[in-house]
Amino acid sequence: MYALNELEEAYRTIIPSDEFREEMKYYLTEYAGRPTPLTFCRNLSADLNCRIYLKREDLLHSGAHKLNNALGQALLAKCMGKQRIIAETGAGQHGVATAIAGAVLGLPVEVYMGEEDIRRQSLNVARMHMLGAKVSAVASGSRTLKDAINEALRDWVTNVQDTHYLIGSVVGPHPFPSLVREFQTVIGNEIREQVMAKEGRLPDAMVACVGGGSNAIGMFAPFLDDPVELWGAEAGGEGLAGRHGATLCGGTPGVLHGSYTYLIQDAFGQILESHSISAGLDYPGVGPEHSFLRDTRRVIYRPVTDAEAVDSFLYLSRTEGIIPALESAHAVGLARQIAGGRGPDDILIINLSGRGDKDVAQVAGLMGGNP
Amino acid sequence: MNSRIDGAFRLREGPLIVPCVVAGDPSFAESLQISRELVDAGADMLEIVMPFSDPVADGPVIQQAGSRARTAGMTTDRLFDLVREVRAETGIPLLIMTYANIVIRRGIRKFYRDAADAGADGVVVADVPLEEADPFCAAARMAGIDPILFVSQTTSPERREQILAKAGGFIYLVAALGVTGTREDLSPQSIDLLKVVKERTSLPVVPGFGISTPEHVRRYTHAGADGVIVGSALIRMIGDRGSSGSGPGNRIGDLVRAMKLAARGG
């Protein structure tokens, strides 16, 4: 609790300061490349018969939205006088983002990553090494994201005085879900400005993928009080009857990693292994705010299966010449489902949370080398 | 309150030795047998650990033990069966140690009622901070169970006072920064903390986390501890036992006996 109270205090006092905001602005614009474009997709729009935009977080430095949060928290940690940063990673994007933030801000980084994910995401493991981060393999439990978080939490309680735990999604104990939302809301704020400039009105619907849910919260947060449909695409895996990672669609409430939220668990409260073709969505919990938004029905969550995600991965690649991350391909998959029945003037925005280079080998393998 | 835990501390001749056993590790029957060995060796209180899939407060030894137990079919229902069987054979206080989601999933009140019915005297929930403790403490007291809370080196003085006011049975002093697991040296800060907490409460104060040797027990005894909790140092031996089941089992009893001797000034 000591570290969480300290972090909450820093959140309240440091982040609103002019000095911190100036620094953040420098890193986000000069270094990371913000604002990212809101691309009107002609081919997709023609094919789906409504006005489709992609929010291009895939064009952010590092190749995914994760860097927004990594830079923010690393800068905060530096202001707090922390000497070392640890992080967990699933797909490796958050690990890479944290390694980048650590390198540019001069803080040593150690990233915990499940053995299974290290196998699935070797490209990102290599990137982290190049960036000077230490990657520690986690061999416990399901050897994926949840176990990497467990190990990072164990490190943090042991080295709490000089170490900041740079959590990668809107999960974990308070104030992490709020803190990460704070740094990801730049996505939604930019969308609002960009869509107003291009269309002169708010969109009809927005879609994002939800693992822990940081890109989705970042996109949704500025629109919660507006008449905009919000859709979250969860990891449907093999379908809800089989193995999946669709916590909100197929889970029950409980406590994991310091949050009361929907979980994939058994009748006794043991957390079950989730499954998704995309490592970044392979998590049996979800950000607690998403649980709230589910219960209030402000956001509608739907599962998108592995097969649908791979299909949309190829669909976007071939229709628009953009290879999406498998995580983001879930959002594309859900957008294709909900585009039907809309008018040609309806505006639909998809958060393209990351690019797909890291997944190319995996998808090629699935296609048996015959794309 | 007139609980079995209060009685044990009131009537003690030296600091209480509180060994841990992981329920169902490596099987239900063997964990029952290990519990017997611990009681026979002189355990003054027994902590029965209900494994959770994501034990963030535990080091590798208890993680692996929990994983063995869950693979062998351990569930919350079977935990209460085990407590019931141990209770039938001994009068010493029995603690259950687990994680919040295990309690919440069963229903907080039902968990504490079931624990009391099975014969448990105290419940420790590793990942419930003071700020969230009220429903757990209330359910515990309603069921006649002592709610045991943690104080650690990073607990602020303000929170510490609130914890001391809410806790029952004894104060679980987290003796090492970090997770459970054996350690060669004990932290001098934990000795200081023990002395501070002793001054602030009339409840017994019992350190745990990292206590591995009779020498550690001696040091905490000299510093005024009312007992010591010994987990990983014993549970590691279960893992070393392998599947054969027999043989070095006596080593568990030997360590408990040696610690007991150390606690009595030997």
List keywords for this structure.
heterodimer, A: 371 residues, alpha/beta, six-stranded mixed β-sheet, four-stranded parallel β-sheet, 16 helices, B: 266 residues, eight-stranded parallel β-sheet, 12 helices, 49% helix
Q: What does this protein look like?
A:
The complex is a heterodimer of chains A (371) and B (266). By secondary structure, chain A is an alpha/beta fold. In chain A, 45% of the residues lie in helices and 18% in strands. Chain A contains 16 helices and twelve strands. In chain A, the strands form three sheets. Chain A has a six-stranded mixed sheet, with helices on both faces. In chain A, strands 5-4-3-6 form a four-stranded parallel sheet, sandwiched between helices. A two-stranded antiparallel sheet of chain A has the order 9-10. By secondary structure, chain B is an alpha/beta fold. Chain B has helices at 4-10, 28-40, 60-71, 76-89, 100-106, 108-118, 134-143, 157-166, 188-200, 214-222, 232-241, 249-263, and strands spanning 16-22, 46-49, 94-98, 122-125, 146-151, 171-174, 205-208, 227-230. Chain B has an eight-stranded parallel sheet. The mean pLDDT of chain B is 93. The A-B interface holds A 1-3, 5, 140-141, 146-147, 150, 153-154, 157-160, 254-258, 263, 265, 267-272 and B 52-57, 59-60, 63, 67, 70, 75-77, 99-106, 127, 129-131, 154-156, 159, 177-179.
Strand order of the largest sheet of chain B: 7-6-5-4-3-2-1-8
The secondary-structure element order of chain B is: HEHEHHEHHEHEHEHEHEHH
Low-confidence stretches of chain A: none
Question: Could you tell me the number of beta strands of chain A?
Answer: 12
Q: Helix and strand string of chain A, N-terminal first?
A: HHEHEHEHEHHEHEHHEHEHEEHEHHEH
The helix content of chain B, as a percent range, equals 40-55%
Report the C-alpha radius of gyration of chain A, rounded: 19 Å
* Separate helix tally of chain A: 16
For the biggest sheet of chain A, the summary is: 6 strands, mixed
Helix share bin of chain A: 40-55%
Distance between the termini of chain A: 51 Å
SSE class of chain A: alpha/beta
Low-pLDDT stretches of chain B are none
Instruction: Give the strand order of the largest sheet of chain A, numbering strands 1, 2, ... along the chain.
Output: 1-2-12-7-8-11
Count the DSSP helices of chain B: 12
Write down the overall geometry of chain B. Answer: globular
- What Rg of chain B do the Cα atoms give? 17 Å
